[in-house]
Amino acid sequence: MKIPKGLRCGIEIHQQLDTRKLFCACATGLSDEGHGAYRRRLKPVSGELGAIDRAAMIQYKKGVGFEYQTVPGLSCLVDLDEEPPVGPDADAVRLGLTFSAMIGADVVDEIHFMRKIVVDGSNTTGYQRSALISVGGHVDIGHKKIGILTTCLEEDAARKISEEKGIVTYRLDRLGIPLLEIATAPDMETPEEVREAALRIGTMLRATKGVKRGIGTIREDLNISIPGGARVEIKGAQELRLLPAYVENEAKRQAMLIEIKGILGKRGAVAPAGDAVDVSDAFGGCGSKVISSALSSGGIVCAVALPGFAGTLNGSGGKYRLGAELAQRARVKAGVKGIFHSDELPGYGIGEGYVKAVFERLGLKGEHDAFAICADRKRKAEKAIAAVAERAAEALSGVPEETRDPMPDGTSRYSRPLPGADRMSPETDIPPIAVDRGELAEIAANLPEMPEETEARLVSAHGINAQQASVLVATDRHELFERLVSGGAETAIAAATLTNTYSELEREGTDTQSIDGAHILRIFEMLSQGAFAKEAVPELVKKAAEGVDPDKAVESLGLSAVGQEEARDTIAKIVSERADFVRERGMSAVGPLMGPVMGALRGKIDGGLANSLLTEEIKRLLAEGK
Amino acid sequence: MAYSKRLETLLSKAGAEIGCRLSVRRGGARFEGILMGHGDANDPDAIVIKTAGGYNAGIMLGEGDSVEVLSPPAKTQARKKGTGKAKNGSPRVAVVGTGGTIAASVDAASGALGPNRALEDLLDEVPGLRDDFEIVAEQPFAVFSEDMGPSRWTALAEAVVSAAAKDVAGVVVTHGTDTMGHSAAALSFMLRGIGKPIVLTGAQRSPDRPSSDAFGNILSAARYCATGKPGVYVLMRGGLNDDEYALFEGTRAKKMHTSRRDAFRAPNVGPFATMDDAGAIEYLRDALPVAKYEPRTRLEPAVALVKIYPGIGPAELSALVSGKKGIVIEGTGMGHVPSALIGTVADLVSSGVLVGIATQCAGGSVNLNVYGTGRALQAAGAIPLSDTLPETALVKMMWALANCEDPAGAMRTPLAGECSDRRELV
Ligand SMILES: [Zn+2]
């Protein structure tokens, strides 16, 4: 299936800042360990429209539903909501102003922190503090301008650690880390543009030199729609390389749902009657494990008729997959493992006879009629079937607006309906912050070097090619490169190492982000001292990626203190072992013997030196023979 | 701060009123949003607008900038009232509201919190309260508790007396936490012998936040009223968890933390009882013996509480206590004052001023026998107040001077559990 025409995407980028926390003096970082468990609950407060979140209220009445772990140094009374906020952090505000200036946005004159109500426990207060810094501006990708709607400064949420027996446990280390939230206009029209825009914004953010780096420090929400589809939000994507896949798969999913709408419309299908029918008695002796174990533990098999839906659940050779949508909804809403639907039956141990019996029990006779069943405890199964009926009804009008979770394979899964407008109210604990026009002017006059400026400078100052410069900037290794070069490293080797060697390592599945820059600096320092030949660099970088200290690696690889004499001995041995070959070929034996020589020396000496030593040895042998 | 004259003119010419949708031009920039109120924290040349995402922002309008009204204010819907109806036979509990953080929400003028939430609205928001209790609410006044004082203590006591006289199981008093200990002490002396639970409670987080402690505290106070022992108590969180509550005798409760939910402690004695999330009470000691109930709500306001500090001299002390009928001195350690003040104390006593000595230490008792200064203070006629909290001593002296024939004797006698001659290892 091709990517449908008229695709529109917007992204919202959340970038952690490398400052202290936004509203307390805690350091920012994540800890593998949390302490204690402070039990809390959050009451849904009525919004400006007076609506109360019913599910949240039921949770509140049940009792404490959240537990919080603290981390010394990374959490304090503010994070635990036992002290009012202090701040905002001036460095974080300045980064917001700086980025706004970089994109040419209009900065507000008074920054007002707001409370965005969130009662899932991820904020101890029950709200996220967030402020609008600027509106407007744009970023360029190729020849296209991508509009920016807003740039906001907000606090990150607590990290969810576990969920058990109705208690969600969070750790407070991440709570309060400043985030810049950049929302673009829906200006992207292809999956690749989405990746480019995200990359561009990410690179510009890093150009401020004030943001955190590494997995989880930047997260993207994607808003995707196609004509006739609906706005769907994929929330919390962390891997840039997967963004095009999310967009493409979502666009195709919407196109499929639009086609299914057409099919259902033609058949005159109507919303399924929501009532679940207990069809347990039709499954006596059924070989399906799911069904027999549900029945034997007192559960039921519950069914819903889906008249007109046959072939849309899983049909046309896997092209139509509404069944997967029904199953996801049932999983999220009822917590069941899954459902079965008639497009995939007989199968899964459910024989033809059982399928016929269910059609009969539901009174379904039409050629396009279908059904779905769920086997579980009574209440759960009924809830699952109600969710299936709800989702099936939505299929009649095409694509439902929803929020989806990104999956590591580039697809996404239903998580919840699209939330309404955020419930915002002023954060009374923080007075409005006046933006100083003088500071803004000073920021505008001293903007960080834009990525393309850095690239141009790398080319002109160091003579590397544009391709290498662009990779160095895009991968955020240009600072390390410049430190290597200013430390005396040979430009070509440094550039090749940070581009080719790193990408080879990545192809092999190595996480190059974890390489300690200090290790790379040490490798080049030793290289310039002649401790080993340049051929050994890739291997040492590989060791550094495994966390091995370069000095130790040099030792363990046998690279250390290999003198020319030792190399000469090795080469002499190789030449004498192949004396007949050398005598036969004469000086043209140099080329063929370089292989075994370099293999034996394994980067202990430079290729050029090896070549001249080999030439000398061959000359000597040939002279001896005369 | 009000708008500047120029901005006021600009807005009125454009016909802009709060709630209307505006398009704003500031230089080359354009903003759109709903016009919000303007408070003391805003620049006189800035308007506050709510943008499409719900964010507020201040925009400064200078010469040449303009506003255009896009649409008039939307009609706001009236907030729905609480709907819970108590089951027949549910306990009746009175609630007397006095303001405080527990009744706070944003104040338009300052942009900060004000004690402006109507009591009935607050009670409507307490999950389960109106389902389980029949509530009789009354709000004699609404202030932050730093604005409490002798006349409001009397007004509060009278409101509690009349509420308790109705057919109720007990009375919940919602109160600011800053001086809730003082008010609880005042009620403890004024309403000695009241045969019902009187429970003061407050909040450290205002009820406009999902994490507010207001709701749990009010519900727990009502639960205590329904089943607890009589007397005047303070109820707040008993720890940092939302399912632990603690009660303290009114004369013993002290705010020991500026912001934690479990800010209240009872130095020297610890909590009187704890309560869990379901309302189960565990008593940690006996309640005070019930005295004859004769409410006496008058207070003598001319009493001062003076904290001793190194270097305080006779002139400073005299200035602080001029015109007073009684003073409570918060002495150092076991109740000491610089020796230079002994003569001033003696003069005060001989001119008929009641002088009591409490300690500024966070725990322990006054003892004026151990050191020479202490004995000199006793010889000067000062009354050692044992382990009575200084703020409780202040209120007790106001009450004793207004109601007792022998105020000095009253100060030496435990009347409402305010002091003890033994301290356990707590
Ligand atoms: Zn902190």
How would you describe the overall organization of this protein?
The complex is a heterodimer of chains A (626) and B (426). Chain A is of the alpha+beta class. Chain A contains 20 helices and 22 strands. In chain A, strands 1, 4, 6, 7, 8, 9, 12, 13, 14, 19, 20 and 21 form a twelve-stranded mixed beta sheet that branches. In chain A, strands 2-3-11-10 form a four-stranded mixed beta sheet, with no helix packed on it. Chain A has a four-stranded antiparallel beta sheet with strand order 15-16-18-17. In chain A, α11 packs across α13 and α17 crosses α19. The longest helix of chain A has 25 residues. Helix content of chain B is 25%, strand content 23%. The radius of gyration of chain B is 26 Å and the shape is globular. Chain B starts with a helix and ends in a 14-residue tail after the last helix. Chain B is an alpha/beta fold and 426 residues long. Chain B is built from eleven helices and 21 strands. Classes of the chains: A alpha+beta (626), B alpha/beta (426). At the A-B interface, β2, α1, β5, β6 and β7 of A face β2, β3 and β4 of B. β5 of chain A pairs antiparallel with β4 of chain B. The complex binds zinc ion. The site of zinc ion has 8 residues of chain A, from loops.
What are the defining features of this structure?
heterodimer, A: 626 residues, alpha+beta, Gyrase A, domain 2, 4 domains, 4-stranded mixed beta sheet, 20 helices, 40% helix, globular, B: 426 residues, alpha/beta, SH3 type barrels, Rossmann fold, 3 domains, 8-stranded mixed beta sheet, 5-stranded antiparallel beta sheet, 11 helices, binds zinc ion
